[in-house]
Design brief:
About 30% of the residues lie in helices and about 20% in strands. The chain is globular and about 65 Å long. The strands form 5 sheets. Strands 1, 2, 6, 7, 8, 9 and 18 form a 7-stranded mixed sheet that branches. The protein has a 4-stranded antiparallel sheet with strand order 12-13-11-14, with helices on one face. It has a 3-stranded antiparallel sheet with strand order 3-5-4. It has 2 domains: about 270 residues, FAD/NAD(P)-binding domain (3-Layer(bba) Sandwich); about 100 residues. It has about 425 residues and is of the alpha+beta class. The two termini are about 40 Å apart. Bound molecules: flavin-adenine dinucleotide (FAD). Flavin-adenine dinucleotide binds next to helix 1, strand 3, strand 7 and helix 10. The site of flavin-adenine dinucleotide has 39 residues, from helix 1, strand 3, strand 7 and helix 10.
């Protein structure tokens, strides 16, 4: 693969948004390529070591509000025996997820280009016409009629010249980053019983800190992910590094080194303080540190916390979000003061306009880097919603291509009809 190549649709980044965008476009007959810097699809769900997806249902209920490709993925992973899936969430083996996503790429005839970093955008007269990929082969352009930025960091949009915001509007800080890790040798039943008394193990961390067994980087469990298909293993969401700009390689490097130190420190605490974890051991740290927040690209509309809490209706809705406003402290351990838990049944509509960048044409932005405020991102950033945005971007890309119109001119009813036909929920 070298020299200049041409696609109908290029998706940059193969995370939850990227696979949904790519598979949707390819299934509608577009010649589609996903360019991914790592060696697998899935983003945070695989390369980031996070084997848990939530929330498919409205907050605190069993009413599923997300369908489409991102739910199909959860169902297929469970059916293949690599995990479990309910109306609310999915827990899975990361390696199994990688395999299923590649099967889905093959079936939908989505081309993949791994080990390739998208380092620049090709723009002419305010329209994106291609991207520059950097890899072992060299550095070369790949051209396309429509490009969908699913890099999480909005790398393509930023290079193309789109405006963006980053971090908390009050101080500019992004949410902390977390190096996930997977441990084995866990007696889960024993651990669950112990955890029943103190769900977030706050007392354990307190004791460990007082005894000098860990530094005060975190003080409660952020997530333990478990699937019955691997009963002695746990995925751990605990490490916590603040003040990181994930668009800078130097910050990513220092955060990864610190994250790994924290992970090993955490295992020592587990062994000493948690019954059922006496013999636990490190299985893996992932390819990449988990990033919760970076660039939010300016779209035709910016989704706000007020929209979410009012459960505002949008004519151009592409699906629902429903997660609480999950903001980890931007300046220390634990959760942020801006964290917010809504009422049971909470669900809000996601407008199409937040995935259409306002500054550059023929470009979409889906996933964590879509157009919203810091607080709205606290909820919108979870994987089902990244999938909702990705699928809508893939479908809208093909509609705009077939009708020879700009993404800004896509007929919302036509988009919604296509999404409905693809089992998406409104
Ligand atoms: C620690 C942590 C815990 C979380 N917990 C949950 C949870 O419990 N449930 C949940 O649903 N969500 C959770 N999330 C949120 C969720 O995982 C992410 O917000 C979501 O994965 C974002 O999806 P995405 O497709 O936008 O980006 P990502 O998943 O980040 O995928 C982006 C992809 O693009 C690739 N890429 C990036 N830049 C380039 C480039 N320039 N060139 C080529 N490829 C590139 C990356 O390698 C990656 O594969 C968590 C996130 C973190 C970090």
């Amino acid at each position: 693969m070298s020299g200049e190549m041409f696609y109908d649709v290029i998706v940059c980044g193969g995370g939850p948004a990227g696979v949904s965008a790519g598979f949707a476009a390819a299934r509608m007959g577009a010649k589609t390529l996903i360019v991914e810097q790592f060696n697998c699809l899935g983003g945070v769900a695989t390369a980031g070591g996070h084997g848990h997806i939530c929330l498919y249902s409205s907050w605190g209920t069993d009413e599923r509000v997300v369908g489409g490709i991102i739910y199909e993925i959860a169902e297929r992973v469970a059916k293949a025996g690599y995990g479990i899936c309910t109306n609310s969430s999915a827990d899975f083996e990361i390696e199994g997820m990688k395999l299923v996503l590649e099967q889905m790429a093959e079936e939908s005839k989505t081309d993949l280009l791994y080990h390739s970093f998208v380092s620049n955008a090709v723009v002419k007269d305010g329209k994106i016409t291609g991207v520059v990929a950097q890899n072992k082969t060299g550095r070369y352009k790949i051209m396309a009629d429509r490009i969908i930025d699913c890099t999480g960091d909005g790398d393509v949009c930023a290079k193309a010249g789109c405006g963006f915001d980053m971090g908390d509007e009050e101080n500019g800080f992004c949410q902390p980053v977390t190096l996930m890790f997977t441990i084995g040798g866990v007696d889960y039943e024993k651990v669950s019983k112990f955890r029943g008394n103190d769900y977030k193990l706050v007392d354990v961390w307190k004791k460990a800190r007082e005894n000098g067994d860990m530094r005060p980087f975190q003080h409660c469990i952020m997530g333990w992910w478990w699937t019955p298909t691997r009963p002695d293993q746990l995925g751990i969401n605990f490490t916590h590094i603040n003040f990181i700009d994930s668009t800078k390689a130097e910050d990513l490097t220092s955060a990864t080194i610190e994250g790994r130190k924290q992970a090993y420190e955490t295992i020592e605490v587990y062994r000493k303080y948690v019954p059922g974890m006496e013999n636990c051991y490190m299985i893996s740290t992932p390819n990449t540190i988990g990033i919760r927040e970076s660039r939010r690209i300016h779209g035709l509309y910016t989704l706000t916390k007020e929209d979410l809490l009012a459960m505002r209706k949008f004519d151009d809705s592409i699906g629902y979000g429903s997660f609480f406003i999950d903001i980890h402290s931007v300046s220390g351990p634990g959760m942020d003061k801006k964290e917010y838990h809504p009422e049971k049944g909470f669900k809000y509509q996601i407008p199409y306009r937040i995935i259409v960048p306002k500054d550059i044409d023929n470009l979409f932005v889906a996933g964590r880097c879509a157009s919203c405020t810091h607080e709205a991102l606290g909820s919108l950033r979870v994987m089902p919603q990244c999938g909702v945005m990705g699928q809508a971007a893939g479908v809208a890309a093909v509609i705009s291509l077939n009708r020879r119109i700009s993404p800004k001119e896509v007929n919302v009813s036509e988009l919604q009809k296509n999404l409905k036909d693809q089992d998406c929920i409104f």
